[in-house]
Fold this sequence. Notes:
Elements: H1 2-25, H2 32-42, H3 47-70, H4 78-116, H5 119-125, H6 130-167, H7 173-180, H8 186-212, H9 217-249
Helix pairs in contact: 1-6, 1-8, 2-6, 3-4, 3-6, 4-6, 4-7, 4-8, 4-9, 6-7, 6-8, 8-9
Amino acid sequence: MTRVRQLLDLFGGATRLSGQTLARMVTPPFELSETVRQLDRIGVGSLNLTNITALFTGMVLALQIAYTLTAFGAKMYIGEVVAMALVRELGPVLTALMVGGRVGSGITAELGSMAVTEQVDALRSMASDPVRKLVVPRVWATLIALPLLTILANAMGIFGGMVIAVTQEGLSPTFYFSRAFRLMGFDDVASGLGKTLFFAWLIAIIGCHNGINARGGADGVGRATTNTVFASAIGVLVSDFFLTKLFLSL
């Protein structure tokens, strides 16, 4: 029951924070300098992690697909399967999981440290809005960074699949890429990138909510950080199912 109550508290608090954040995202004043700083920390700081993850995911995916399709004499379809799997599903989800673990926990740790040292209360005492100052820039930065990181991750994953197709299966790079992009349409790319906007919102809001509401000193910040990693991962995986059903029905 305690775990269920915690999840309900998180859902209610995150929903309330979402409404407050959305209202402040479209009304001045805008914290542009802080948004750019967070974009550098969230986006540029996550490049290596997401690209390496996508590269080796594409390579492993190509290996597994080649092993299966070669038995049926259909190894020429490696490019199509790798590209579609990455663009529609694996690219957005794996990128969101990596960013959620790195960025979500970082946001919670940073804001949690401010909360337990009463810096957030100090902002309120000076008639400054913590949601506008602290939450909105991080949400904007995550919303901008995650789709861009996903595009780069998709490219790296497809490239990784090409490396295996050329070195292990004897296909030419030209043939691989021509097959990889043969079936891919705008709907495939749009559905994958559309998911990233929902994932980015979840990661940023959960991280900010747990950080601002952290209590109990360093131990409380540690618990909040752990809860953020858990909640953001579950949120991404559960929402991915419903978003996939939605986009396939459109």
